[in-house]
Amino acid sequence: MSQETTHKHTNRLVHETSPYLLQHAHNPVDWYPWGEESIRKAKEEDKPILLSIGYSACHWCHVMERESFENEETARIMNDHFINIKVDREERPDLDEIYMAATVAMNNGQGGWPMTVFLAPDQRPFFAGTYFPPEDRYGRPGFGAILLRIAELWKTDRAALLHQGESLTEHIRRQTVSMPAQSVGDEAIEQAATLLARDFDPVHGGFGGAPKFPPSMALSLLLRVHRRTGDPEWLKIVRVTLDAMAKGGMYDQIGGGFCRYSTDEKWLVPHFEKMLYDNALLARIYLEAYQVTKDPLYKRIATEILDYELREMTSSEGGFYSSTDADSEGEEGKYFVWTPDEIKAVLGDENARRFCAYYDITEAGNWEGKNIPNTPRTLEQIASRLEISPEALRPPWNPHGKNFTRPDKNASRPGGTTRSSPLGTD
């Protein structure tokens, strides 16, 4: 029996090679890949284009697929009124950049994935957003209502939509005009550092509130300003942020490597996808911080990131995997969260008691009744609480070792998630 006859629905994406597009190959939505056929179809049928851009490791992309793209009624509306195109941002970063600029422009500087953009047949965007729930929720309009409203406006007030598209296209064109390369002077660099400092969170590190993304490039800039000026305040911002990220749940305390971002201001609860490029930047800033401070924590984190990338992100074909998925077996973070009983099954009662104390693992849990390992207290503080020496906390379970595995037939290690396709090495 062929692959196509084993599913209720099969669309054109079944012939693609992108893992993200293949994830949607059996949606009831009549998806097209980006290309001449879909654009021609939109012009021939005089329909607007619904462009959906995401990537295979994206948690909210999975959520919107389950809620909307696998829904028969939603798919019917999409198929009746739109030409529907799916794009993998990792496969087509050029398209992602263009339409992300439109999304950000239309949403007060906010963007993200999944990206949902409505285009005229000539590819001009006239409405854009990110994740939409199936009904009104989270302060966002429901996706079905948006589809019907845009379909109605396309028939009754198309001129207004196209005018908005023209204005938006001109805005994007102005934003993307290439500027000649220019040198940046010391004054401009220090102004940038000062602006960053104004947004610094002195309690939890990083800049601004939740959600928080690891600010690798900003920290690298501040580290260089510190090195040039000798001002300890710049180094303090870097250290507070690096320390907080390394101790939080956004860092995979068991397997190494950082998740893409934290949903809270404390770096505790991530969406669990890990991106190759994020970890490459983070390995570099932790290494640079170690060069400046000689703090062994930074050396350890940089080493663990690189060990993780070599161990789990390197393809046998010679390239690197671009990401690991936020969801495993349909469940967000399944191999990254723990209960005390799971720890006991691996380590035994006494070692589990020590492990749980160090990694903040409790019966109550810190996320949806389970625990994201994090290290809010030092080894010395935990040793004092347990009335043992700090050295006794290390072997045999080794807090930062690589041999700790979950007793699960489907997971040889924590974080055993689906990878997207290998990237080329050139």
Write up this protein.
It is built from 15 helices and 13 strands. It is α+β, with helices and mostly antiparallel strands and 426 residues long. It folds into 3 domains: 173 residues, Glutaredoxin, CATH 3.40.30.10; 144 residues, Glycosyltransferase (Alpha/alpha barrel), CATH 1.50.10; 72 residues, no CATH class. The strands form 5 sheets. The protein has a 5-stranded mixed β-sheet, sandwiched between helices. Strands 6-7 form a two-stranded antiparallel ribbon. A hairpin with a 5-residue loop joins strand 4 and strand 5. Helix 4 packs parallel to helix 6. The protein is globular. The protein starts with 18 loop residues before the first helix and ends with a strand. The C terminus is likely disordered.
What structural keywords apply?
426 residues; Glutaredoxin; 13 strands; 44% helix; alpha+beta; two-stranded antiparallel ribbon; single chain; disordered C terminus; Glycosyltransferase; five-stranded mixed β-sheet; globular
Strand order of the largest sheet: 1-3-2-4-5
At the fourth CATH level, what is the homologous superfamily of the largest domain? Answer: Glutaredoxin
CATH architecture of the largest domain: 3-Layer(aba) Sandwich
CATH topology of the largest domain: Glutaredoxin
Number of strands: 13
